[in-house]
TrEMBL record:
Residue ranges of every copy of the Fructose-1-6-bisphosphatase class I N-terminal domain listed in the record: 11-199
Enzyme class, UniProt record, top EC level: hydrolase
Organism: Gossypium tomentosum (Hawaiian cotton)
CDD domains documented for this protein: FBPase (cd00354)
A GO cellular-component term linked to this record: cytosol
Listed transmembrane segments: none
Residue ranges of every copy of the Fructose-1-6-bisphosphatase class 1 C-terminal domain listed in the record: 203-333
Protein name: Fructose-1,6-bisphosphatase, cytosolic
Cofactor requirements of the protein: Mg(2+)
One MF annotation (Gene Ontology) recorded for this entry: fructose 1,6-bisphosphate 1-phosphatase activity
Amino acid sequence: HAADAHRTDLMTITRFVLNEQSKYPESRGDFTILLNHIVLGCKFVCSAVNKAGLAKLIGLAGETNVQGEEQKKLDVLSNEVFVKALVSSGRTCILVSEEDEEATFVDPSKRGRYCVVFDPLDGSSNIDCGVSIGTIFGIYMIKDNHEPTLDDVLQPGKQMLAAGYCMYGSSCTLVLSTGEGVNGFTLDPSLGEFILTHPDIKIPKKGKIYSVNEGNAKNWDGPTAKYVEKCKFPKDGSSSKSLRYIGSMVADVHRTLLYGGIFLYPADKKSPSGKLRSVLYEVFPMSFLMEQAGGQAFTGKQRALDLVPTKIHERSPIFLGSFDDVEDIKALYAAEG
Ligand code: AHM
Ligand code: MG
């Protein structure tokens, strides 16, 4: 059809969220405004990431610019962009960023009821070789009009109102859940708008891919080692799984969500609370999305979203993905006792 050549009824992310929020009569548009500011941050970072290679080529990175200021590293720049966008939304009260040791308490004059936890640019060590990187975020709301404290963000992931990530890859994709399923939007660079391209994402019940840094195998615990062995040498006659590991959590989780399978960042004998993944701004948002898409997320001990963090930069092992695949690793940990 000629008419199909130009889609004229575009579902932008703003329109989508406005529609969703209008189901709640008490909604005053605050969430939509907050989300618009997050989207702005994502567009800014997308544009900066796309220019990163060029900046290097013309000798900007790490050097001083015309104003005599040192060129900011992209992760530092991204953090500043998100902090400013979130504060200026007038809808936030507490911000927790991977880049900042302390939480930011928003000035009372600009305060709202949302708390945002985020990793502004995850996987930034991948920038120089052009591998996909991303922003991850989770959103809580403080209960009543009390003075915000850290306890408002030290909440289990199941209390999140919304979570999402933006992947800066071959295209710029924003995946979002407000607790009613998962939807994916792709940035149309010519419009500067995120358009709904992946409505109601459901993760396959079982997948054919496992994703883990196998270089750490010597430090794995029994259940993880057994699970990966089973992926490679299944004893039940099923075919072995493929290994895919990008080393960029957003990209590895995005593939897992769309194609199915399992992503593992297991415990490590050498550093039991060592690198692992951050609870607030990595484990919780990704687990929230997985569950909303019909998958599961497990820490090795419990449902990931039940974890109660005791500090803002707390870390945890994580196993997430297709329902049946996570079920298998849960069984191995249960057998261990
Ligand atoms: P970063 O926080 O230093 O940017 O690293 C985060 C990245 C994640 O995106 C990815 O899942 C993980 O580090 C990979 O870690 P490893 O190199 O241990 O496999
Ligand atoms: Mg990170």
